Amino acid sequence: MSEIASIPSKRESTDDRRAAIARAARQLIVEKGVEGLRTRDIADRVGINVATLHYHVPTKEALIELVAESLKFEFMSQHVVRPRAHMDAMGRMDMEFVDFREMIEDRPDVMLVFSELIERARRDERIAVAIRPMLRKWRQILIDILSEGVRDGVYRADLDAEPAALMMMGAVVGFCRSGNKDFDGYERLVAELKRAIRNPNYQPQDTHSKD
Amino acid sequence: MSEIASIPSKRESTDDRRAAIARAARQLIVEKGVEGLRTRDIADRVGINVATLHYHVPTKEALIELVAESLKFEFMSQHVVRPRAHMDAMGRMDMEFVDFREMIEDRPDVMLVFSELIERARRDERIAVAIRPMLRKWRQILIDILSEGVRDGVYRADLDAEPAALMMMGAVVGFCRSGNKDFDGYERLVAELKRAIRNPNYQPQDTHSKD
Amino acid sequence: MSEIASIPSKRESTDDRRAAIARAARQLIVEKGVEGLRTRDIADRVGINVATLHYHVPTKEALIELVAESLKFEFMSQHVVRPRAHMDAMGRMDMEFVDFREMIEDRPDVMLVFSELIERARRDERIAVAIRPMLRKWRQILIDILSEGVRDGVYRADLDAEPAALMMMGAVVGFCRSGNKDFDGYERLVAELKRAIRNPNYQPQDTHSKD
Amino acid sequence: MSEIASIPSKRESTDDRRAAIARAARQLIVEKGVEGLRTRDIADRVGINVATLHYHVPTKEALIELVAESLKFEFMSQHVVRPRAHMDAMGRMDMEFVDFREMIEDRPDVMLVFSELIERARRDERIAVAIRPMLRKWRQILIDILSEGVRDGVYRADLDAEPAALMMMGAVVGFCRSGNKDFDGYERLVAELKRAIRNPNYQPQDTHSKD
DNA sequence: CATGAATGAGTATTCATTCAT
DNA sequence: AATGAATGAATACTCATTCAT
């Protein structure tokens, strides 16, 4: 289940090996970037021979696709775990920010690798194919929340959901890219984003909210 | 900078060569990324031998620094050209957006290369040294404008200038990174950013605004 | 042939497997040459795992020997099938040409693989050991026929059987090597070979001819 | 001009290097076959680094083409050196055999490499492109001599020049392929070939022969 | 008998960099 | 200042072979 460098664990199933390889590759991408990624290093970290690596993942291209897929899986499963249909727009947006913070705290490699792959996707169609759906889905979730929020009056009436979604994504991705580990900074950014979209005239009449 | 006006050709060509090399390198970074950058390709594009390239720029590291410097020069000179001290915050912010649009229209490589280098700066301190001042200066300019705007009442009173600046930078950089060439999209984004920070109660005709 | 009739499945399969492997190997040698021969490809074509292939044929060298043996078997059995002792030299030579034509028509791989192995035999003594007897036997058969034909006056009196045999072998092997599938060409070649050796003064109606 | 393994000879011109590489490659093909040819070995024998080898000959495919070309050059220049127009068919054919013997004695690699490439040409169109003209030219020369000889009555009237040419080529190539260094054998073969085509009724002293 | 996984020893090719001219 | 030639150190990928099950 978990081989961290030192544990040799001979003769694993391909699925387990591929998972371990994806994990090691992601770590290494964080450390050295996609350009600094070496099959040898990955094999070493997994504790297998390079040839064994190639047995499970035939080419480096396939390897990067594997990384992209592993990211996609992790990234997209997020919204499946906690059902949010019953919440209002603001609540769901809050959940987004909480989830995101959780991610950059617990699995900081996700966003860094994601950012690397975004850069690479511009020139590599195969990466683009794996990355674009993630961006698209994220954007759509935000657009949906924002649109609903505008309809319900919690967000500015003049809010244009599409660019607003891009703005939010750009803001948080930009934060992660900078390598900033300062979570206060993250909270200040989130607070500002919330103010940027909220309807200043909104009266939380029936629910009588706290703030 | 280093060439003495009276000596016309022999001595100054190094600087010319370096400029040409920087230009070619930037083009190639756009096409293939920093990771796909090859000294041979640069030399070919400049029309010189690889050995000659190394004569002018000794190592690849120095080359990337040269690129970063050339970017810095271009990026930072922007705000020097047009004096803006006399304008109000909103006007200056508008100028920012116009300048930025001009840049991505006229020299689309600037932002793409910039984005590449941001990614690289995370692992390469020498790049970081060249890149960080640019980000810092940009952020400071935005913070200044935003702070002034808040003071003058044109921007939201509850606007937190620092994260707001990051938000704006992230939004436009994110737009460029996506490789989007749709300038309508850019204008929609800019419009949304303006609404995101503006003071909804601001009376533009009135010079001394009220709450 | 080697499996004992009463034991039906378990024991005989190794021989069957080896035969199937030899067949697949020969096909692949025709397609890609000995140098392009891959154990994996053979295993795939036979429908077994590479490890299984190695169980039946331990090394690649053994594999090539197996191919050579299979060729030898096929090649040398030819002259056993039809008893020819009763025929005269010319008739037996005709049979040789007919047999050969049958072979390159029905099992075109035999000569192509043979030619590959001849080339390889020059450097690989183990292959030479398997190939040389075939060449030797073939040459001897031709020498015998030619010698008899000379004795009987059907072939030129000044014919030197040994080099003549080499000439004939070289001619037909050369034809096959070229990858030529034109059987008219083959017949023209054969006709020329026959004229090249025949005794121009031979009187066919006369059974006991003298010079 | 001549670097034989031990002489390092730094900084040669590309043409010289390519010639040396072709020479070394041919030696190695004789020793280990095309399939056993290793870029490293060639570089070692030339006395250069592998990377230097690739500088002069970019890929292995190009290397084999270079070998084929070098062969072509040597093989085809043969008939240019000594003008033979004034000779009669038999004389010219004799010259062919003498030339050929000279070749297998002085440059025994030529025919061995040639034979290797013939084998390879069946699957590699690029090699075929270099090899086929050689075969074609050789065949044409023989056909021309044979046709003239038939016309002049020195060769059999029923001789079919085309297959006869193939027969002769096959015979001598077959001789070389066998790795036979026995020149007596060669002479016996040649003698037999001559008898195989000659007109038994030809009167040499008589200039205007009769049927 | 069969197989999925593993591996050592290659193998061509790449690339930044250096050197002699 | 410029260049053709040269090179060391990598690098992804291959392949026959082995091992545990």
TrEMBL record, chains A, B, C, D:
Keywords: DNA-binding, Repressor, Transcription, Transcription regulation. Pfam families: TetR_C_6, TetR_N. Coiled coil: none annotated. The keyword Iron-sulfur does not apply. GO terms for molecular function: DNA-binding transcription factor activity; transcription cis-regulatory region binding. PROSITE patterns: HTH_TETR_2. InterPro entries: BetI_C, Homeodomain-like_sf, HTH-type_TetR-like_transc_reg, HTH_TetR, Tet_transcr_reg_TetR-rel_C_sf. Residues 15-75 form the HTH tetR-type domain. Residues 38-57 bind DNA. It comes from the Bacteria. The keyword ATP-binding does not apply. PANTHER family: HTH-TYPE TRANSCRIPTIONAL REGULATOR BETI, HTH-TYPE TRANSCRIPTIONAL REGULATOR RUTR. This is TetR/AcrR family transcriptional regulator.
